[in-house]
From TrEMBL:
Coiled coil: none
Alphabetized PROSITE patterns for the sequence: GST_NTER (PS50404)
GO molecular function annotation: glutathione transferase activity
Identification of the protein by name: GST N-terminal domain-containing protein
Chain ranges passing through the membrane: none
Pfam families in alphabetical order: GST_N (PF02798)
Domain GST N-terminal: 3-81
Amino acid sequence: SMEKIKLTYFNIEGVAEPIRLAFALAGIEYEDERIAFDQWKDMKPKMPFGQLPVLTINDGPMQTQSMAMLRWVGMMQQQQQQKQQSSSHSDKSSLLYPVNDPAAVYKIEEAMGVVEDLRKSWTPCLAMGRAPLTYGHPEGFFDTADGQARIQQVRELWVRETFPLYAQQLQGLLAKYNGQWLASTEAPTIVDCVAVVFLRGFTK
Protein backbone atom coordinates (compact mmCIF):
# COMPACT_ATOMS: atom_id res chain seq x y z
CA SER A 1 0.00 0.00 0.00
CA MET A 2 1.17 3.50 -0.81
CA GLU A 3 2.21 5.73 2.05
CA LYS A 4 0.31 8.96 2.62
CA ILE A 5 2.92 11.72 2.46
CA LYS A 6 2.44 15.43 3.08
CA LEU A 7 5.08 18.14 2.68
CA THR A 8 4.22 21.45 4.37
CA TYR A 9 5.99 24.70 3.47
CA PHE A 10 5.30 28.26 2.37
CA ASN A 11 4.09 28.98 -1.16
CA ILE A 12 7.63 29.73 -2.33
CA GLU A 13 10.51 27.61 -3.62
CA GLY A 14 12.90 28.05 -0.67
CA VAL A 15 14.34 24.94 0.97
CA ALA A 16 11.31 22.79 0.05
CA GLU A 17 11.69 23.07 -3.73
CA PRO A 18 14.55 20.52 -4.01
CA ILE A 19 12.30 18.06 -2.13
CA ARG A 20 9.37 18.79 -4.47
CA LEU A 21 11.68 18.23 -7.47
CA ALA A 22 12.90 14.96 -5.96
CA PHE A 23 9.32 13.74 -5.44
CA ALA A 24 8.55 14.57 -9.09
CA LEU A 25 11.69 12.83 -10.41
CA ALA A 26 11.06 9.79 -8.18
CA GLY A 27 7.43 9.57 -9.28
CA ILE A 28 6.27 9.52 -5.65
CA GLU A 29 2.82 10.96 -4.95
CA TYR A 30 2.51 13.41 -2.07
CA GLU A 31 0.39 16.31 -0.85
CA ASP A 32 2.12 19.64 -1.48
CA GLU A 33 0.65 21.75 1.34
CA ARG A 34 1.51 25.44 0.95
CA ILE A 35 1.01 27.82 3.86
CA ALA A 36 0.25 31.53 3.46
CA PHE A 37 2.62 33.78 5.43
CA ASP A 38 -0.29 35.21 7.44
CA GLN A 39 -1.17 31.68 8.67
CA TRP A 40 2.34 31.12 9.97
CA LYS A 41 2.07 33.14 13.19
CA ASP A 42 -0.59 30.78 14.57
CA MET A 43 1.11 27.65 13.24
CA LYS A 44 4.66 28.36 14.40
CA PRO A 45 4.26 27.36 18.09
CA LYS A 46 2.83 23.98 17.02
CA MET A 47 5.76 23.15 14.74
CA PRO A 48 8.76 21.12 15.92
CA PHE A 49 11.63 23.65 16.28
CA GLY A 50 9.17 26.36 15.11
CA GLN A 51 10.25 25.84 11.50
CA LEU A 52 9.08 24.69 8.10
CA PRO A 53 9.23 22.49 6.09
CA VAL A 54 7.73 19.55 7.91
CA LEU A 55 7.05 16.12 6.45
CA THR A 56 4.15 13.99 7.67
CA ILE A 57 3.96 10.29 6.78
CA ASN A 58 0.70 8.38 7.29
CA ASP A 59 -0.54 11.13 9.66
CA GLY A 60 2.36 10.32 12.00
CA PRO A 61 4.50 12.86 13.91
CA MET A 62 5.81 15.86 11.97
CA GLN A 63 9.38 15.33 10.79
CA THR A 64 11.88 18.12 10.25
CA GLN A 65 15.11 19.02 8.40
CA SER A 66 14.91 19.56 4.65
CA MET A 67 18.12 17.71 3.76
CA ALA A 68 16.98 14.62 5.67
CA MET A 69 13.69 14.78 3.73
CA LEU A 70 15.55 15.03 0.43
CA ARG A 71 17.69 11.96 1.17
CA TRP A 72 14.60 10.11 2.41
CA VAL A 73 12.82 10.70 -0.92
CA GLY A 74 15.87 9.25 -2.69
CA MET A 75 15.84 6.19 -0.44
CA MET A 76 12.09 5.72 -0.88
CA GLN A 77 12.56 5.78 -4.66
CA GLN A 78 15.16 3.01 -4.41
CA GLN A 79 12.88 0.97 -2.14
CA GLN A 80 10.01 1.31 -4.62
CA GLN A 81 12.23 0.27 -7.52
CA GLN A 82 13.38 -2.80 -5.61
CA LYS A 83 9.73 -3.80 -5.12
CA GLN A 84 9.19 -3.50 -8.87
CA GLN A 85 12.39 -5.42 -9.65
CA SER A 86 10.79 -7.44 -12.43
CA SER A 87 9.51 -4.37 -14.26
CA SER A 88 11.51 -2.08 -16.52
CA HIS A 89 11.40 0.65 -13.87
CA SER A 90 14.24 -0.83 -11.84
CA ASP A 91 16.85 1.25 -13.62
CA LYS A 92 19.76 1.97 -11.27
CA SER A 93 21.05 4.76 -13.49
CA SER A 94 18.08 6.98 -12.64
CA LEU A 95 18.30 6.71 -8.84
CA LEU A 96 18.33 10.02 -6.96
CA TYR A 97 20.32 8.58 -4.04
CA PRO A 98 21.66 5.07 -4.74
CA VAL A 99 22.33 4.04 -1.13
CA ASN A 100 23.60 0.58 -2.13
CA ASP A 101 26.42 2.12 -4.18
CA PRO A 102 28.91 3.80 -1.79
CA ALA A 103 31.06 5.20 -4.63
CA ALA A 104 28.04 6.91 -6.23
CA VAL A 105 26.82 8.24 -2.87
CA TYR A 106 30.30 9.63 -2.17
CA LYS A 107 30.24 11.60 -5.43
CA ILE A 108 26.77 12.93 -4.58
CA GLU A 109 27.86 13.96 -1.06
CA GLU A 110 31.10 15.49 -2.37
CA ALA A 111 29.12 17.67 -4.78
CA MET A 112 26.56 18.41 -2.04
CA GLY A 113 29.38 19.71 0.17
CA VAL A 114 30.39 22.22 -2.52
CA VAL A 115 26.78 23.34 -3.10
CA GLU A 116 26.19 23.69 0.67
CA ASP A 117 29.40 25.74 1.06
CA LEU A 118 28.18 27.97 -1.78
CA ARG A 119 24.75 28.39 -0.14
CA LYS A 120 26.35 29.19 3.25
CA SER A 121 28.64 31.79 1.68
CA TRP A 122 25.59 33.61 0.29
CA THR A 123 23.59 33.50 3.55
CA PRO A 124 25.09 36.66 5.15
CA CYS A 125 24.38 38.62 1.94
CA LEU A 126 20.75 37.64 2.30
CA ALA A 127 20.35 37.63 6.08
CA MET A 128 22.23 40.71 7.25
CA GLY A 129 19.36 43.03 6.35
CA ARG A 130 16.99 41.02 8.54
CA ALA A 131 19.38 40.51 11.47
CA PRO A 132 21.65 43.56 11.74
CA LEU A 133 22.75 42.82 15.33
CA THR A 134 24.04 39.38 14.30
CA TYR A 135 26.35 41.06 11.81
CA GLY A 136 27.58 43.78 14.17
CA HIS A 137 25.28 46.62 13.10
CA PRO A 138 22.72 48.54 15.18
CA GLU A 139 19.01 47.77 14.83
CA GLY A 140 17.51 49.72 11.93
CA PHE A 141 20.92 50.31 10.29
CA PHE A 142 19.88 48.64 7.05
CA ASP A 143 16.88 50.96 6.71
CA THR A 144 19.34 53.85 6.25
CA ALA A 145 21.08 54.84 3.01
CA ASP A 146 24.43 53.75 4.52
CA GLY A 147 22.93 50.38 5.44
CA GLN A 148 21.51 49.82 1.97
CA ALA A 149 24.89 50.72 0.46
CA ARG A 150 26.59 48.23 2.82
CA ILE A 151 24.31 45.37 1.71
CA GLN A 152 24.93 46.28 -1.92
CA GLN A 153 28.69 46.29 -1.29
CA VAL A 154 28.65 42.87 0.41
CA ARG A 155 26.55 41.33 -2.38
CA GLU A 156 28.69 42.80 -5.15
CA LEU A 157 31.82 41.46 -3.46
CA TRP A 158 30.23 37.99 -3.27
CA VAL A 159 29.27 38.06 -6.97
CA ARG A 160 32.72 39.31 -7.98
CA GLU A 161 34.96 37.15 -5.77
CA THR A 162 33.18 34.34 -3.92
CA PHE A 163 30.73 33.00 -6.49
CA PRO A 164 33.36 32.46 -9.24
CA LEU A 165 35.41 30.28 -6.85
CA TYR A 166 32.48 27.96 -6.21
CA ALA A 167 31.39 28.02 -9.86
CA GLN A 168 34.90 26.83 -10.69
CA GLN A 169 34.60 23.99 -8.14
CA LEU A 170 31.26 22.91 -9.62
CA GLN A 171 32.71 23.06 -13.14
CA GLY A 172 35.63 21.01 -11.84
CA LEU A 173 33.27 18.30 -10.57
CA LEU A 174 31.49 18.17 -13.93
CA ALA A 175 34.82 17.89 -15.75
CA LYS A 176 36.33 15.43 -13.25
CA TYR A 177 33.72 12.78 -13.84
CA ASN A 178 32.88 13.79 -17.40
CA GLY A 179 29.18 14.05 -16.64
CA GLN A 180 26.34 16.45 -17.33
CA TRP A 181 25.10 16.07 -13.75
CA LEU A 182 27.11 17.08 -10.68
CA ALA A 183 27.71 13.53 -9.45
CA SER A 184 28.58 12.20 -12.94
CA THR A 185 25.35 10.22 -13.15
CA GLU A 186 23.23 9.54 -16.22
CA ALA A 187 20.25 11.26 -14.60
CA PRO A 188 19.84 13.95 -11.91
CA THR A 189 20.43 13.10 -8.24
CA ILE A 190 19.49 14.92 -5.05
CA VAL A 191 22.48 17.29 -5.40
CA ASP A 192 21.22 18.50 -8.78
CA CYS A 193 17.83 19.21 -7.16
CA VAL A 194 19.56 21.46 -4.59
CA ALA A 195 21.94 23.15 -7.03
CA VAL A 196 19.34 23.98 -9.68
CA VAL A 197 16.99 25.63 -7.16
CA PHE A 198 19.77 27.68 -5.56
CA LEU A 199 21.28 28.85 -8.85
CA ARG A 200 17.88 29.50 -10.44
CA GLY A 201 17.18 31.94 -7.61
CA PHE A 202 19.71 34.34 -9.14
CA THR A 203 17.94 34.42 -12.49
CA LYS A 204 14.70 35.81 -11.05
